[in-house]
User: Fold this.
Amino acid sequence: MRRFWPLLGLLLPLTGTSKDHPTAECNWLYQRIAALEKAIQQGDKLGTREELAKRKKEFKAKACSQYDY
Assistant:
C-alpha cells in the first residue's frame, strides 16, 4: 500500500487536464467545422453543406463537445 501513494500523486494532476486538451482529431474537426461554416456564410455551396453535416456527425460521435476549445 505504501508504494501506491507516490503513484497516486502522479496520476491526480492528469485527471483535470483532459477537458482542457482535446485530441488532435477533435481539434481538427472543430477547426474544419468552423471553416465550413465560414465558407457557407461567404456563399460557397458546392458540397459544403454535405461535408459540414458529415463533420458535425463525426464531432458528435467522437464526443468532442466535452472539450474546451
Notes: The longest helix spans residues 24-41.
